[in-house]
Amino acid sequence: MLAIVLVSYFMIVLDNSIIFTGLPQIQEAMQLTPAALSWVQDAYTLVFGGLLLLGARAGDLLCRRRVFMVGLALFGLASLLVGTAQSETWIIAARAFQGVGAAIVAPSSLSLITATFAPGRERTRAVAAYGTTAGVGASVGLVVGGALASLLSWRVGFFINVPIAITMIVLASRFLAPSRIVRGRFDVLGAITSTIGMGSLVYGIVEGGDNGWSAPGTLIPLGIGVVVLGVFVLNEWRAAQPIMPLRLFASRKRSGAAATRLLFAGAGIGFFFFTTQFLQGVYKWTPLQTGIAFLPMSLLQFGVSLFVARLTRRFGNGWLVAVGIGIVLAGLIWLAQITPDTPYLVGFAGPLALFGIGQGLCFGPLTAAGISGAPAEDAGAASGLVNTAHQLGSTLGVAALTAAGAGAATLADRVADAYTGAAVMVGVALVLTLVFILPADLAARRAAINLH
Predict the structure, then answer these.
(1) Whole-number Å distance between alpha carbons of 157 and 219
(2) CA distance linking residue 260 with residue 247, whole number of Å
(3) pTM of the model
(4) How far is residue 435's CA from residue 297's CA, in Å, rounded to a whole number?
């Protein structure tokens, strides 16, 4: 079960980053503006994040195995459509459709893990593997995407999802046991308002970077986003079976983990998005060279993640999250000094190593903190919240950092400004970790020691 779930989730995360090394080729082939290029990424992560809560609820109500298989089928079909895209509208729409499949598969994956493994050592190891998959998949996607874009085409990175999805569907039908179906109903209004609200905010942020923050095209969608998200919160407060039970936020640890993950994921995706453009646009590297440039980060992240379960038992999630985020922050501050004349070994090799170590340390523990203490009836919602924070953070991160660098005269300056913005986001994430996650984790560990 764990192998099927992790391979499927790996495919989802891989696809979230595999496109980055192909972005320059996509931009040139389809004549995309910088704002339109950001929507090739944001269309996927926005729909992914907006529908995650509905996908998590669907697993509880309709059988997680069945929903998991449907999600894989949709994701495979959407990948085929992305690979055959011929225009700006086509590729953005297909990426949004991919987000629908991903929004079903991702929460079902984490729910299957939490429902199968009892709290304790086994669940700690399984959740650590899930968190590692998220981090390593993102890193490996850059290497694989670069190789495919250079040797074949960026389209191949999406075509390979089709046989993987079919294989996982067949294996899931044979080896995943049907879950107990919970009686209830869907919170459709919650799913619609969350998606529209976040979509309006992201659109407003992108427009602000392109056309100015006082332009009607910026202010109107921002205002709509705030109002619609207010309706979402009100609906969740009153709904009998909300898509995001507000009681989940009663835990300071879970609330802090969600906010931290949102900021950390936003900075991380922004880092990948802009680094690939710098390496290809400023250094004039090929996609393959760009992918190989990320290899040290991927190897270090994988190596560090192998020790996370052991380190968690010794030090707890809180310390690993704090230390990991602190290391990534140091890497971003280093990167923010980049100029066109900075050699790769001086400007990128060190920060990439720090990124690999930091992400390897904190991804799994941050996932565990996000579902910590959630009651059984909220397992799907807690899993959905973890993934929602990650994907919405990714969406807002690319939009916000694109806006942060929009006024720069050159690509190199735009990337440096984006790194500075990412460092601010990670700095806030570190503060949230020290205020909410670490104290709660230390208190829980003290209580467990006193109990024994």
Answers:
(1) 37
(2) 18
(3) 0.78
(4) 29
Nearest CA to 325 out of 300, 371, 352, 361 is that of 361
Residue 332 near residue 422, CB atoms below 8 Å: yes
Of the candidates 398, 380, 379, 376, the one whose C-alpha atom is nearest the C-alpha of residue 104 is 380
Nearest-angstrom CA–CA distance, 392 and 40: 15
The Cα–Cα gap between 394 and 391 comes to: 5
The set of residues, in sequence order, having a beta carbon less than 8 Å from that of 399 and lying 6+ positions away, is: 38, 42, 202, 205, 206, 209
Helices (H), 63-120: 64-83, 88-116
CA 110 – CA 126 distance, rounded (Å): 9
pLDDT band per the 50, 70, 90 thresholds, residue 233: very high
Task: Give burial (CB, 10 Å; 0-12/13-18/19+) of 174.
Answer: exposed
CA 203, CA 192: separation in Å to the nearest integer? Answer: 16
Question: What residues have CB less than 8 Å from 201, skipping those under 6 apart?
Answer: 221, 222, 225, 226, 229, 396
Rounded Cα distance between 109 and 68, Å, is 7
pLDDT, tens digit (0-9, with 9 covering 90-100), for 97-140: 998 998 888 878 877 887 778 777 787 788 778 777 776 776 67
SS3 145: helix
- Write the pLDDT tens digit of every residue in 9-41: 888 877 777 777 777 788 888 888 777 777 787
189/232 Cα distance (integer angstroms): 8
Tell me how many degrees the CA angle 212-216-217 measures, rounded to the nearest 5. Answer: 75
- Pick from 31, 15, 29, 163: which is nearest to 95 by CA? 15
Q: How far is residue 18's CA from residue 142's CA, in Å, rounded to a whole number?
A: 5
Q: CA–CA separation, 448 vs 104, rounded Å?
A: 35
What is the CB neighbour count within 10 angstroms for residue 308? 27
**For the chain, percent helix, then strand, then coil, each to nearest 5?**
85, 0, 15
AA identity, residue 97: F
| CA distances in angstroms from 292 to 271, 349, 350, 415, 416, listed in the order given | 16, 11, 15, 20, 21
What gap in Å lies between CA 200 and CA 68, rounded to an integer? 29
CA distance 50 to 379: 18
Question: Cα separations (Å) of 85 from 25, 94, 297, 371?
Answer: 13, 8, 31, 38
Q: pLDDT band at 81, cuts 50/70/90?
A: very high
* Residue 330, helix vs strand vs coil: helix
